[in-house]
Amino acid sequence: MRLAFLGTPEAAVPSLRALVDAGHHVELVITRPDRKRARGGQLSPSPVKVCALELGLPVRHRLSDLEYLDVERGVVVAYGRIIPADLLARIPMLNVHFSLLPRWRGAAPVERAILAGDEETGVSIMTLDADLDTGPVHLEKRVEVDEKSLSTLLDQLANVGAAALIEVLASPELLNNPIAQVGEATIAAKLNKEDFHLMPTLSAEQLLRIVRLGRAFMMVGGRRLLVESAERVAASDVPSGSIEVRDALVLLGALDGAIALDRVRPESGKSMNAIAWWNGSRLAHDTARWT
Predict the structure, then answer these.
(1) Distance, CA of 241 to CA of 252 (rounded, Å)
(2) C or N terminus of the chain, fewer CB within 10 Å?
(3) CA separation for the pair 148, 70 (Å, rounded)
(4) 182-225: per-residue pLDDT in tens?
C-alpha cells in the first residue's frame, strides 16, 4: 500500500519500521522540524526523521507537502499537531493511539493512565477525524500497566501498536469496518511542570506514580531535587512533609504514610543513591523538610 507517515518521537519509530518491513511503500514521512534538544544550540532531528533517513525515505516538515501526494492512506503516530479536516477528507488516515478509547483522548494518554492508577491501558488503531481522537476504532490491544515506568510502558505500547497497525492494514475486514467508540470519554491533557512536583499533601501511592513518569522533583532547602526512583515502605508514622533516615533508608512523609527515595539527582548535579545525597546534604535530622 502507498502510504504517507506522520510521526515525531521515539514511540513512533516502531510503526515506521514495521510498515517498511511489511512491504508497504512509504512515499513520504512528515515530522516536526529539527529543534534544540540539548545545550549548545545545535539542532537535532526527531527520532522519526533519523529512522526515515536511515531507511532511505524522503522526509519533509510541512503538512502542505502532502497536498499533491498520491497515496492511499496516511498513518499518524504521535505526530504532535492536529491534522486539518480538508487534508483528512483527501487522504484517509489511521492513527496509532496509545490508550483504550474513548478513555484518554488527547496528548498525554500514557502519563494520564499511570497517574490515574489504571490497571490496564492499550493501543487503539483508529480512523482520524476532525475532532480530538473521536474516530471509529479498527482494532484494540490491551496492555497491563502494573508498576511500569512511563518509558517502559511507552516502549511496550509502541511495539504493540506497530504490530496492530500491520494487522489492520493486512485485513480488509478490519480496515473497512471500524467500530464507533462506546463509553465515557476522558481527556488526557498535556502535563505541565507542576504535574511532576512531589508534594507532602499527596498520598504515597500518588507520589510513586509521579516518580514513574521520570521527571519528578521536590524542593528541599529551597533547591530542586530530582527523584529518579523510589519505593513503598511500611512506615506510617513519618509526619507529612518531613524527611527521616531509618535503617539506611531516606523516607519522605506523605499524606498517608511514607515513601523511600532510591536514586536522586540534585539540581545541576549527578545521579546518586539517596543515602549518599542525604549524607552530603548537611540537613538537620530533626528539622529536615521537603515541599
Answers:
(1) 7
(2) C
(3) 41
(4) 999 999 999 999 999 999 999 999 999 999 999 999 999 889 99
Q: What is the DSSP letter of 63?
A: G
Q: Any idea which fold 2-188 has?
A: Rossmann fold (3.40.50)
User: Does this model's pTM top 0.70?
Assistant: yes
* Ranges assigned E (strand) in the chain: 2-7, 25-30, 35-36, 43-44, 59-60, 73-77, 93-97, 105-106, 120-127, 137-144, 187-188, 217-220, 223-232, 243-246, 249-253, 258-266, 272-273
User: How many residues can be counted in the chain?
Assistant: 291
CATH topology of domain 193-281: Methionyl-tRNA Fmet Formyltransferase; Chain A, domain 2 (3.10.25)
Q: List, for residues 234-280, the tens digit of each pLDDT value.
A: 888 999 999 999 999 999 999 999 999 999 999 888 999 999 999 99
CA separation, residue 46 to residues 29, 102, 145, 224 (Å): 12, 28, 27, 29
Nearest alpha-carbon partner for 66 in 87, 92, 80: 87
- Domain map (residue ranges) of the chain: 2-188, 193-281
DSSP state of 253: E
In the block, cell 523511600 appears at 260
- φ, ψ of residue 252 to 5 degrees: the values are -110, 125
C-alpha cell at 34: 529539527
